[in-house]
């Protein structure tokens, strides 16, 4: 049953928005759907006696890191997934801090309620990355950031980067890249998309879970229409966060030295899979984003009957600002010539653009899966063949280094005016990156 349902969705969309299009949307047929209802606080799946542990790679920049989580409410918009309710989001703001945090004081990678669901039978750890349910201590993973740590005063306002995760993934699933950018002096805002993300924990104890697995089980599903709704919701969420950033500069919920250091004239966006699609489409719709990076996200939808191609408006129109495409060697991925949405985008984009492909990689290689899954596999929490399917056979440390280098180089060039020339062409420093321009 799993293969039949996954195959149907994979054929109409491929893997570029996320394996979650083929897996997350199909999960209801295998795992049973979970709606957007609030899960009682403390609810968690049965846990194996000995859980696997993993850690994130060390950031490379000179700055210590702080983080804080905020709830935002869009009073002018109804939640498209929960009619009758205002749209509310959770974001995390990551920023340079005054001093490194001690190991025992590091912020959690995932809030415990969210971690329990993520690693349980209905969570993205299972339906996107096929880890064994309950076998990993996700709440035990620690970041390198101090929770509510004092912010480092800035001589001039810092550029801001938004981060959007893939379909079904929580905002935490790109933390290794986010922390590295912050260690280099950026402020990064990670955005959860409730009812799309596997789970979103709110301060009042609610845990809003993804509606996508349940929707995938509906007869006669129009996958293209569903994915267009997903993208429209994500873009609206992102533009609302952009609106709120102005208010956050005077918000007492932020550390004092941070509130006044946000440079809203230098905003970039990075996203993985559906998050990369979101970055491109939001740039198309909103001029406040000056530069963007798409980490292996398609820019088209399946047609009305589940076949053919429906181009997004950003693919049809292109962009007039800098944009970086970063592909993998997943099925239906690679460089821009191999994807209809990327090819159209490439043809129509007037701004600076470049395309690199990480050789030996798979769709999860630009996420925390690249560093975490091999550690979990060594402890028996995920099969080795699943790891290869998710992240390929590129060496994990090289994939992490290359991703950080290319994303950082791009943002430095277009948000800071610092050009290390890495994106001028193929680099002997990174032979695993195929460059197309």
From TrEMBL:
Keywords carried by this UniProt record: Hydrolase, Lipid degradation, Lipid metabolism
Pfam families: PAF-AH_p_II
InterPro entries: AB_hydrolase_fold
Protein name: Esterase
Keyword match Hydrolase: yes
Coiled coil: none
Source organism of this protein record: Kitasatospora purpeofusca
């Amino acid at each position: 049953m799993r293969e039949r349902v996954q195959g149907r969705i994979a054929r109409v969309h491929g893997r570029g928005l996320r394996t979650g299009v083929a897996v997350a949307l199909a999960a209801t047929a295998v795992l049973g759907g979970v709606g957007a209802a609030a899960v009682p606080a403390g609810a968690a799946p049965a846990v194996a006696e000995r859980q696997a542990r993993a850690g994130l790679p060390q950031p490379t920049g000179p700055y210590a890191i702080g983080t804080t989580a905020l709830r935002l409410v869009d009073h002018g918009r109804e939640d498209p997934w929960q009619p009758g309710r205002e749209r509310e989001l959770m974001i995390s703001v990551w920023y340079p801090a005054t001093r490194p945090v001690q190991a025992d004081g590091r912020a959690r990678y995932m809030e415990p309620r969210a971690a329990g669901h993520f690693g349980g039978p209905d969570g993205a750890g299972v339906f996107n990355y096929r880890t064994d349910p309950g076998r990993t201590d996700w709440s035990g993973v620690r970041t390198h950031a101090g929770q509510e740590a004092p912010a480092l005063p800035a001589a001039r306002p810092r550029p801001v980067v938004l981060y959007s995760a893939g379909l079904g993934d929580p905002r935490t699933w790109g933390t290794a890249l986010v922390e590295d950018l912050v260690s280099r002096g950026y402020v990064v805002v990670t955005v959860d998309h409730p009812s799309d993300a596997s789970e979103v924990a709110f301060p009042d104890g609610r845990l809003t879970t993804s509606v996508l697995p349940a929707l995938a089980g509906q007869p006669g599903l129009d996958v293209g229409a569903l994915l267009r709704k997903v993208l429209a919701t994500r873009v609206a969420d992102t533009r609302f966060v952009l609106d709120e950033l102005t208010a956050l500069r005077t918000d007492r919920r932020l550390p004092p030295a941070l509130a006044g250091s946000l440079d809203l004239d230098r905003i970039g966006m990075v996203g993985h899979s559906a998050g990369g699609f979101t970055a491109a489409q939001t740039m198309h719709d909103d001029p406040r984003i000056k530069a963007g990076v798409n980490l292996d996200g398609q820019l088209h939808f399946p047609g009305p009957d589940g076949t053919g191609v429906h181009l997004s408006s950003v693919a049809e129109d292109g962009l007039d600002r800098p944009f970086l495409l970063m592909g993998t060697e997943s099925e239906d991925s690679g460089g821009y010539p191999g994807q209809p949405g990327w090819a159209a985008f490439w043809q129509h984009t007037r701004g600076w653009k470049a395309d690199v492909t990480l050789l030996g990689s798979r769709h999860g290689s630009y996420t925390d899966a690249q560093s975490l899954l091999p550690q979990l596999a060594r402890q028996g929490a995920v099969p080795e063949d699943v790891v290869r399917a998710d992240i390929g056979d590129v060496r994990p440390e090289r994939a992490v280094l290359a991703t950080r280098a290319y994303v950082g180089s791009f943002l430095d060039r277009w948000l800071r005016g610092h050009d290390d020339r890495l994106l001028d062409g193929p680099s002997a420093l990174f032979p695993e990156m195929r460059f197309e321009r």
